[in-house]
């Protein structure tokens, strides 16, 4: 076994494994040295079913996605990811993240908080590719309004048939549409929303609603079979926001161009047009004027998985850097033999472990908590960008080469500081959530 | 070369005209980078204007290592990089190659690239200081300067490669014609879209010429020129980014008011301005030196500047929200360019290792 400079070999009397063996046999288990990886250590700490789920998703990402990463990191993505999505559907990745027995998860996994399941899934997928991970994961975001609608009928009529199709390998995906050309942060922040005039509106007509307007930056909007669209009722403000389920076959609905993005390119961000789209009453999700509440609920559910996306991307960059420094030589030694390189790798391990601890803790309750969701998203996004920068720097003049993937990880990670509310908006969401306590302190300070 | 204030002002005005006429039109759509042909046309125009050239240009990029010429170079590259970092990088590269050729006494002839890479892990310091390298240093120097393969970042159209070698305890230089080299472009780089990353192999190739005299001094100057180029181009792109972010913040409304009136956005703009101002102050002090002490000084300034500039560029992008992430808006290109410039010719951590090693001596 090759030695690692500065680290005692395992057989040395002063090495930890050898030193521990000198202890009394009944003490040894208390200080056991177990030469397993951090990933393995974390996985074993999970309840058995979740640990097995984590292994399964990692294996899936490595065997099914890894070979396609570069081919989908392209400017124009019109050929889509149909084959990948079909395979993901057959593997149950487009019909999970639903309460048992609706989804495709075994009950042993579905009995755990679904936020934690989502976090594990998104980390593993995004460790291989942030874009492909998002392409697969965005479907769950689109379905969330239906679950928060509190109307089992729409789940039975609209969601379950789509899930069955997904399981057959015929993707029938949902997308989530809130952002408008003139309203990005305003639809993610209460104070902004209070003065926002939404441009996508719904007008009453016989048997339903006529939708008009435009949404932008909609993940998976190009191929979605159905979109949960938020629109203000005619003549009213965002307080009237209502969620409508728009189906691809509806006349007047048209996906526009896919944006040219810096990263996460495998998941298109699409412009959607609504021109007198007749949406029947049965497709009103959760009742009139409940859109804002549903939206804020969805964001609380979705922000921790965004933290997990950032974590996965950072881990992918770290793994790429580790592989590089272990195989690349300078001055007759592999780079990992240099102490400063060991320090940099250790810092990446510290950063990603801290991110995972935060993600798993925030995701471990059944009901998401706004402050924790936003804090997790902000911390993970910022840390991921830092880890990716560090990985690029470790690779030196190989760090900017696309084929080494760490520069792609940086491009992918940068989006996590923007979507699901910019990190600035998420920081304000933390304050909003703590407003009562702050107001009380202000009262005391009068 | 000493330029009066008026001469410098006139020269910069001429460069601004050049950038407006030649560089801006091919930079209008950031998602469609200038092609190799377009870059070649710009280089031809720059040569005609005297900005670059194999013969010593009077008012060109890297005309000489004198402070006045370095100041002029900074102004020219700043101006160009505010509009297009990739083109500025290419001009700096071929001008730097021409300067090294002049210093080594090679005859003019086509666009030359000096393949210096970065400072490595510190062994270079021992050679530049005239000391005897340890066996470990020699192994590192062999890797840095003895290999057949180098990576260079330049647009197509280059015709010669200048390579430093570490032989018999000293730095020598070899000049190769491109035809004898095996050069391939590596598909896809992070930024500087108007250029390509080339892997160039000189295995089995015979150099056109060799120079041993003043090899270390030319290496110091070449590394300094690369360092200043990277700094100044990143400073230029960041100036452009901040100007655009300010403009956008004065147009975009959220929460019922212009986003420039939101403290969250003001903070981003302010942070970017602080970073840019600090980097500009560092850039002012950067010089082209022929010795280890001067190289150390300029390298240190560069290592401090790039993280500031990358941070400023990312703050400027953040002002745009989702639009900042879209390629046709151009902010993400600036961030990619800055990240790429941070890594070229030595990363901040490599520079720190280089400086830290010299501190010990």
Please report the number of helical segments of chain B: 11
- Give, in order, the helices and strands of chain B: HHHHEHHEEEEEEHEEHHHH
Overall geometry of chain A: globular
Globally, the shape of chain B reads: globular
Descriptive notes:
The complex is a heterodimer of chains A (446) and B (361). In chain A, 49% of the residues lie in helices and 13% in strands. Chain A has 446 residues and is of the alpha+beta class. In chain A, strands 1, 2, 3, 4, 5, 6, 7 and 8 form an eight-stranded mixed beta sheet that branches. In chain A, strands 9-10 form a two-stranded antiparallel sheet. In chain A, a hairpin with a 2-residue loop joins strand 9 and strand 10 (333-334). In chain A, helix 6 (114-128) packs antiparallel against helix 11, helix 10 packs antiparallel against helix 11 (339-362) and helix 12 (370-394) runs antiparallel to helix 13. With 361 residues, chain B is α+β, with helices and mostly antiparallel strands. Chain B is built from eleven helices and nine strands. Chain B starts with a helix and ends with a helix. Chains A and B meet through helix 9, strand 9, helix 12, helix 13 and helix 14 of A and helix 6, strand 8, helix 8, helix 9 and helix 10 of B.
Q: How do the helices and strands line up, and which of them pair or pack?
A:
The complex is a heterodimer of chains A (446) and B (361).
Chain A: H1 16-21, H2 38-45, H3 48-65, H4 82-90, H5 107-110, H6 114-128, H7 130-148, H8 152-167, E1 174-177, H9 190-194, E2 201-205, E3 208-219, E4 226-233, E5 242-247, E6 253-258, E7 269-280, E8 284-285, H10 291-327, E9 329-330, E10 333-334, H11 339-362, H12 370-394, H13 406-416, H14 423-433, H15 435-444
Parallel strand pairs in A: 1-4, 2-4
Antiparallel strand pairs in A: 2-3, 3-7, 4-5, 5-8, 6-7, 9-10
Chain B: H1 5-23, H2 36-49, H3 67-83, H4 85-104, E1 112-114, H5 123-128, H6 135-146, E2 149-154, E3 160-167, E4 170-177, E5 182-186, E6 196-201, E7 209-211, H7 215-249, E8 253-254, E9 257-258, H8 263-285, H9 292-319, H10 331-343, H11 348-360
Parallel strand pairs in B: 1-3
Antiparallel strand pairs in B: 2-6, 3-4, 4-7, 5-6, 8-9
Helix pairs in contact in B: 1-3, 3-4, 3-7, 4-7, 7-8, 7-9, 7-10, 8-9, 9-10, 9-11
């Amino acid at each position: 076994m090759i030695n690692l400079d500065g680290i005692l070999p395992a057989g040395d009397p002063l090495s930890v494994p050898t030193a521990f063996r000198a202890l009394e046999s009944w003490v040894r288990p208390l200080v056991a040295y177990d030469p397993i990886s951090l990933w393995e250590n974390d996985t074993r700490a999970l309840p058995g079913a979740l640990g097995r789920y984590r292994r399964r998703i990692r294996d899936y990402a490595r065997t099914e996605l890894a070979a396609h990463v570069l081919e989908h990191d392209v400017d124009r993505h019109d050929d889509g990811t149909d084959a990948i999505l079909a395979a993901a559907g057959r593997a149950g990745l487009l019909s999970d993240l639903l309460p048992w027995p609706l989804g495709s998860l075994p009950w042993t996994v579905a009995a755990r908080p679904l936020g934690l399941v989502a976090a594990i899934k998104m980390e593993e997928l995004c460790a291989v590719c942030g874009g492909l991970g998002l392409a697969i994961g965005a479907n769950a975001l689109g379905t969330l309004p239906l679950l928060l609608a509190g109307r089992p009928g729409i789940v039975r009529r609209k969601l379950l048939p789509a899930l069955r199709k997904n399981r057959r390998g015929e993707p029938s995906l949902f997308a989530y549409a809130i952002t408008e050309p003139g309203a990005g942060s305003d639809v993610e922040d209460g104070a902004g929303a209070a003065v926002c005039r939404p441009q996508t509106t719904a007008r009453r007509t016989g048997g339903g609603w006529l939708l008009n307007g435009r949404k932008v930056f909609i993940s998976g909007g190009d191929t979605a079979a159905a979109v949960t669209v938020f629109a203000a009722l005619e003549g009213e403000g965002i307080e009237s926001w209502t969620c409508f389920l728009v189906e691809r076959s509806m006349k007047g609905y048209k996906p526009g161009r896919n944006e040219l993005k810096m990263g996460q390119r495998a998941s298109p961000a699409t412009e959607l047009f609504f021109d007198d789209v007749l949406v029947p009453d049965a497709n009103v999700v959760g009742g009139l004027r409940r859109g804002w509440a549903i939206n804020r609920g969805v964001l609380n559910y979705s922000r921790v998985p965004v933290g997990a996306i950032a974590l996965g991307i950072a881990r992918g960059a770290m793994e790429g850097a580790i592989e590089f420094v272990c195989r690349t030589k300078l001055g007759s030694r592999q780079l990992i033999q240099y102490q400063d390189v060991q320090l940099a790798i250790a810092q990446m391990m510290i950063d990603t472990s801290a991110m995972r601890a935060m993600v798993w803790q925030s995701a471990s309750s059944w009901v998401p908590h706004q402050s924790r969701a936003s804090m997790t998203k902000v911390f993970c996004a910022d840390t991921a960008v830092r880890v990716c920068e560090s990985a690029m720097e470790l690779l030196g003049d190989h760090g900017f080469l696309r084929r080494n993937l760490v520069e792609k990880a940086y491009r992918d990670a940068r989006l996590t500081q923007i979507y699901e509310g910019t990190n600035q908006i998420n920081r304000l969401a933390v304050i909003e959530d703590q407003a009562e306590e702050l107001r009380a302190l202000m009262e005391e300070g009068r | 070369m000493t330029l009066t204030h008026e001469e410098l002002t006139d020269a910069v005005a001429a460069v601004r005209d050049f950038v407006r006429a030649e560089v801006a039109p091919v930079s209008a759509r950031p998602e469609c980078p200038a092609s190799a042909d377009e870059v070649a046309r710009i280089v031809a125009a720059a040569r005609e204007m005297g900005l670059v050239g194999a013969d010593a240009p009077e008012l060109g990029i890297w005309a000489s290592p004198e402070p006045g010429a370095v100041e002029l170079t900074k102004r020219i590259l700043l101006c160009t990089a505010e509009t297009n970092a990739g083109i500025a990088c290419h001009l700096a590269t071929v001008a730097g190659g021409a300067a090294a050729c002049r210093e080594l006494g090679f005859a003019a002839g086509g666009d030359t690239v000096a393949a210096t890479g970065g400072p490595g892990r510190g062994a270079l310091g021992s050679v530049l200081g005239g000391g005897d390298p340890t066996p470990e240093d020699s192994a590192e120097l062999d890797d840095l300067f003895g290999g057949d393969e180098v990576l260079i970042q330049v647009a197509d159209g280059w015709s010669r490669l200048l390579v430093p070698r570490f032989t018999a305890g000293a730095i020598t230089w070899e000049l190769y014609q491109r035809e004898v080299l095996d050069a391939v472009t590596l598909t896809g780089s992070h930024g500087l879209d108007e250029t390509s990353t080339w892997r160039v192999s000189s295995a089995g190739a015979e150099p056109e010429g060799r120079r041993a005299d003043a090899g270390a001094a030319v290496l110091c100057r070449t590394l300094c020129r690369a360092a200043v180029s990277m700094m100044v181009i990143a400073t230029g792109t960041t100036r452009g980014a901040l100007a655009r972010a300010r403009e956008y913040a004065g147009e975009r409304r959220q929460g019922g008011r212009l986003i420039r009136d939101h403290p969250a956005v003001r903070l981003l703009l302010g942070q970017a301005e602080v970073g840019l101002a600090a980097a500009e102050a560092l850039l002012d002090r950067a010089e082209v030196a022929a010795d280890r002490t001067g190289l150390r000084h300029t390298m240190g300034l560069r290592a401090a500047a790039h993280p500031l500039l990358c941070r400023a560029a990312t703050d400027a992008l953040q002002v745009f929200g989702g639009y900042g992430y879209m390629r046709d808006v151009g902010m993400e290109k600036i961030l990619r360019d800055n990240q790429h410039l941070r890594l070229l010719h030595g990363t901040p951590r490599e520079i720190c290792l280089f400086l830290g090693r010299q501190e010990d001596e």
